[in-house]
Write a sequence for this structure.
C-alpha cells in the first residue's frame, strides 16, 4: 500500500454502491404481488441475463449502442411477458425500477468520508438519465458522475474508463477504480488505473490470478487503508 499514490477515486455504481438485484426484485414484486420468492428470482435472472447478453452484443459490435434505458425496457417487457402481465403502464414502471436501487448500508457514510480527502467520480453503465435518478434515490455523493453513454459503449470497454481519466486531468495511474466486480477492475487495469476490490454479496470476486492494489470488506475498510497506507 505504501506505493499507492492517488489523486481521485473512481467508483462503479451498480452492485458496488447500490444493491441492484434488490431494486429489481422490488419492481417485480410490484408487477405481480402474487409471485413467491422462487418466482421472483426466476424473473430477476431473466432480467439480468438479458442485460448482460445485450451489453455483450454491443461490446462485440453485433448490436449498435443503445442506452441502459432501452435495455431496461426490453428486460421489463420480457419479465412482464413471462409473468403474464400485459399492462403497458406496469411494464414502464418495472423498467424504471433500475433507478430505485437501495444503497448498501455503508455506502453513504463511506462516500462522505472519502470525499473529505479525494475527488469522487462515479462511472456507470447506467445512462445519464438513469444515473441522475439512482444517485438521487440512493443519496450518493459525487464531485462528478459519468455515464458510459458518453462513450456510447459499456464497461469494460477502455473508452469508458478514459472518460474518468479525461475529466480528472490526471494520468491513469493516479486514479483508483473501486468496484465489487473483478471484470470491471480488469477493464480499468487495462488502461492503467489502480484498482480496489470491495466485497459485496452481488459482486464478481477476484480470481487467484487477479492482482488488485487494495482489497476491502466495505467502504469503511477502504477508507481506513487509504488513511493509513
Amino acid at each position: 500500500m505504501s506505493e499507492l499514490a492517488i489523486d481521485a477515486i473512481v467508483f462503479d455504481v451498480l452492485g458496488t454502491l447500490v444493491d441492484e438485484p434488490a431494486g429489481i426484485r422490488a419492481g417485480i414484486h410490484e408487477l405481480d404481488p402474487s409471485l413467491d420468492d422462487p418466482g421472483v428470482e426466476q424473473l430477476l435472472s431473466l432480467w439480468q441475463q438479458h442485460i448482460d447478453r445485450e451489453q455483450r452484443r454491443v461490446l462485440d459490435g453485433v448490436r449498435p449502442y443503445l442506452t441502459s434505458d432501452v435495455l431496461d425496457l426490453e428486460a421489463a417487457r420480457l419479465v412482464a411477458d413471462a409473468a403474464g402481465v400485459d399492462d403497458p403502464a406496469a411494464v414502464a414502471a418495472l423498467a424504471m425500477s433500475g433507478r430505485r436501487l437501495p444503497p448498501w448500508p455503508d455506502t453513504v457514510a463511506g462516500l462522505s468520508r472519502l470525499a473529505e480527502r479525494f475527488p469522487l467520480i462515479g462511472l456507470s453503465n447506467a445512462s445519464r438519465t438513469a444515473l441522475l435518478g439512482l444517485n438521487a434515490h440512493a443519496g450518493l455523493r459525487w464531485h462528478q458522475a459519468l455515464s458510459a453513454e458518453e462513450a456510447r459503449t459499456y464497461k469494460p470497454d477502455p473508452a469508458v474508463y478514459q472518460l474518468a481519466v479525461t475529466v480528472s486531468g490526471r494520468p491513469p495511474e493516479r486514479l483508483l477504480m473501486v468496484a465489487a466486480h473483478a471484470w470491471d477492475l480488469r477493464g480499468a487495469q487495462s488502461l492503467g488505473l489502480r484498482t480496489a476490490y470491495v466485497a459485496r454479496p452481488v459482486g464478481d470476486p477476484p480470481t487467484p490470478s487477479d492482482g488488485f492494489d487494495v482489497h476491502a470488506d466495505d467502504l469503511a475498510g477502504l477508507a481506513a487503508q487509504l488513511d493509513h497506507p
Summary: The domain at 20-99 is CATH 1.10.150 (DNA polymerase; domain 1). The chain has a mean pLDDT of 96. Strands lie at 8-11, 120-124, 144-147, 175-179, 194-198, 214-216.
